[in-house]
């Protein structure tokens, strides 16, 4: 899985909003706190607002805040709002692909991969991140030493 810079920035900004305990946070504060380019962040916050994940208010008491409780917003919600479906192959959803011959089982691999991504990203909420209490299934995966080893070719 590759996470775009937009999704990474969106996740970091929304986690800051969740940590603010319901208070309004300005885009400038978010940008400074998380070292996110301001103009880039403004576009991201607009996407998140349109997706119904954050709310905003203009003026001296303005800023951004979560549109729902942090316990009701998953990491998957944020990634989908910014980048669309969690897994795509050549821009297509895996269930819409068709392979023939020896490659036919490849579709099942893509479906299984998406299911695993969902199992983690839909389970972990902003509240989990802010509290530092990740679900046991996620902790178990991350505690496996092999999970920390890169498998990229030399």
Show the helix and strand layout.
Blueprint: H1 5-19, H2 27-34, H3 38-50, E1 54-57, E2 63-66, H4 75-83, H5 106-121, H6 126-131, H7 136-143
Helix pairs in contact: 1-2, 1-3, 1-4, 2-3
Textual characterization of the structure:
This protein is mostly helical. It is built from seven helices and two strands; from the N terminus they run H-H-H-E-E-H-H-H-H. Strands 1-2 form a two-stranded antiparallel ribbon.
Strand order of the largest sheet: 1-2
What is the CATH C level class of the domain at 5-84 and 123-148, in words? Mainly Alpha
Tell me the overall shape. globular
Number of helices, counting only DSSP H or I runs of 4 residues or more: 7
User: Would you report the number of β strands?
Assistant: 2
What is the radius of gyration?
18 Å
**Share in helix:** 40-55%
CATH third-tier fold name of the domain at 5-84 and 123-148: Arc Repressor Mutant, subunit A
CATH superfamily of the domain at 5-84 and 123-148: Winged helix-like DNA-binding domain superfamily/Winged helix DNA-binding domain
CATH architecture of the domain at 5-84 and 123-148: Orthogonal Bundle
For the structure shown, list the relevant keywords.
5% strand, single chain, Arc Repressor Mutant, subunit A, two-stranded antiparallel ribbon, mainly alpha
């Amino acid at each position: 899985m590759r996470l775009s810079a937009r999704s990474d920035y969106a996740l970091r900004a929304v986690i800051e909003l969740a940590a603010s305990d319901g208070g309004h946070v300005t885009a400038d504060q978010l940008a400074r706190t998380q070292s996110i380019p301001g103009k880039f962040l403004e576009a991201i916050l607009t996407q998140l607002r349109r997706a119904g994940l954050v709310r905003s208010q203009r003026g001296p008491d303005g800023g951004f805040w979560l549109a729902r409780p942090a316990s009701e917003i998953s990491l998957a919600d944020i990634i989908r709002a910014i980048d669309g479906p969690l897994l795509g192959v050549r821009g297509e959803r895996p269930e819409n692909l068709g392979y023939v011959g020896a490659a036919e089982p490849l579709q099942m691999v893509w479906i299984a991969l998406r299911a695993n991504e969902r199992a983690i990203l839909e389970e972990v909420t902003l509240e989990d991140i802010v509290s530092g209490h990740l679900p046991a299934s996620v902790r178990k995966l991350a505690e496996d030493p092999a999970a920390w080893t890169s498998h990229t070719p030399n």
